[in-house]
Amino acid sequence: MDVDINSLYDCTDNKLKVIEPGYEGIPPGILRRMGKAVRIGVGAALPLIKEAASLDGFIIGTANGGMEDCIKFLNQIIQYEEGVLTPGSFVQSTPNAIAGQLGLFTKNKGYNITHVHRGLAFENAVIDAMMLLHDHPENNYLVGAVDEISAYNYNIELLSGAYKKEPVSCKELYTIHSEGCIAGESAVTFLVNGNKTNAVAQLLGVHGLHTTDIAVVEKQLQLFIQKHLPAGEKIDLLLSGENGDNRLSKYYTSVENIINTATARFKHMTGEYATVSSFAVWLACQLFQTQDVPSHMLKTQKPQAPIKNILIYNNYKGAQHSFILLTKEN
Amino acid sequence: MSRIVVTGIGVISAIGNTVAENRTALQEGKCGITALSLFPSKYAGLMPFGEIKISTEELQKKLNATERGVTRTSLLALHAFAEAIADSQLTNDEITAFDTALIGASTVGGMCLTDELYHDANKNEGGSAYLSSYDFASVNIYLQERYKMSGIVNTINTACSSSANAIMYGARLIKSGRAKRAIVGGVDCLAKFTINGFNALHILSSDICTPFDEQRKGLNLGEGAAFLVLEREEDVIAKNVYAVVSGYCNANDSFHPSSLSDEGDGPYLSMKGALETANITVGDISFINAHGTATENNDAVESKAMIRLFDRVPPFASTKSNTGHTLGAAGAIEAVYSILNLTHQEIYPGLNCKNPIAATGLQPVKIYQKRPLQHIMSNSFGFGGNCTSLIFSTT
Amino acid sequence: METAALKEQLKKQIVEFLNLLSVKPEDIKDDEPLFGEGLGLDSIDSLELIVLLGREYGIDIKDPKEGRKILVDVNTMVAYIEKHRTK
Can you give the pTM of this predicted structure? Predict the structure, then answer.
């Protein structure tokens, strides 16, 4: 499916939901069992699975796994007072159902893992892949992340003050200056190996940290750049995970001041969720190819051509932060 | 590259609150699977569980852990974590260092609080104190905050193989230079979610489980936590070192979402792969701590895979008849038990197996014995066909 | 309830309960095997059908192995329901 990142979809009830494809590649007998998280995860992986000459494993990051199935099973427990319950939603709610289903679907007996560390679930999945490829650069892995909006976790997050209380439009997300953000979901997958030929991008570095202290974020950012940005090169674009929650603006402002380059934002396209940095990596890959940042994303002036190095800075609830540095290949 | 060694261990389970208590219970063939006395569930009178007989309130007091939103899962993890880091004599500087990783696992997280979860998921007002405690990461984030850790922190959930994968991940982080030391392990506590889930799959037994017995009827759920401190051998010359993490492998059975294939490709490949990373042969394995859940499917397939791989199946036993199946904690608890095997050069009796599986004739070890042991394999096989094998060796 | 009507009702319930997306109730033959060939259901489906029998017809099947003997095709299921239903 061709994606047009120049167009902007608006949210409904402060939620940006996925647009699901027809899933022609999944046999109905298997599709019927899949909750949304597994469905969109497998759906995002199928085109890559078709493309890959071989696959040595699946590495998935997801904070919550199959939330819809989780609440279906939970509600049954309460409704039937722990009586006779259907096992399907229990099995599908387990976070490793996504990677498990992918392994099952492809009859792949290789490495299969699910990282669930909240706002760093995707980053940990990437580090896992980097370690594997360091040892076996000839291998191919499918790395990805999935998180879904469900009534269950939306309600819990709303009660905890994570989301905007008043309805907002994506167009005004950064100008409203209030607490909270909007909810999002996605499934994003990548084929990775240790070979530059035909690669879209190279991951130069990934770093995650736990802190609410801006000074720590600043220091770690500087160390990260020193370690991973090749000598003599600069960051052409900062992809910022600013999400419209004014309690978190200080982190983004601080990072923007340090990096001091063209800045673009993406959460008005995606909403907020634990593994949204996976979408940012996908977006970076798109931008490497188009060399053009849509105007609705720009916070500053356009980046100078060529866009070679992109730094992604994201945080989840101001407590988990990550830096991802990518460089264009080919 | 330096070998990766274990310098500290901590465990809490239905058979003991410390490493020493667990060891004594294992030596004596003690079974911690009983009727529920603390946990409120319809199943309290119907089937036995490996329940830790300490209430959540007692744990909070004992651990001085009264932070808002702390769950029983986090408390059990804290108990074992604290024992492991004290055992390893890690200094505060080392715990908070940027090159100390924390890799944990849980399949329940804060979902042990089913009623609070139901309320928070469905009601419009009055959120509980646990709003940010339900997810799987909440346990490790609690430990990270409490101990002010600044290195890589990660949580893995691959069902029953979760903490075995966490141990493997921690070892690989050290090997790759991303960490100098890693505190690795897992935890799970009893929860209506998992009790009802496993019951819906008809794999819970109403009697105490009998791993590898021909008449086995299913598993008993248990709760517990275990952590291990992994370090580079070159850094710990002066320390007590328990064992080397010499082999590990994860493979996928890719047959069915919740059961293993007859051929057992997943278990076979994970065991074979672990031998390869350890650079040893089938004849070198002294003992296997089996996954051995006592379900019809697992024990049959695991037996078949062992026969397929090993010319002569080594002595083996499952400790799940002592502790119950502790899900996300199983891999780590059983790793600690494997280390106890090596440290004390002893094997513990597998409980409750009267008649071997007719198709294989394989019998688990039934009596306590001292014997020379060099390499111990520990297996954990989870939903989604996720199979992980670890090998621990003497130094 | 007449046998023919019960068969129709059961087929609808099977399709709904198991979320059989590409199957219409009227397409299920009375003697079409539910497992393996035919409808191609698996072990999780058999557990779910046992729950269906309990919730809709008050039939309590404790042992899934016994359940598989009843869950051969629509005919065997209907025969069992007619004999053992309590709802």
Answer: 0.97
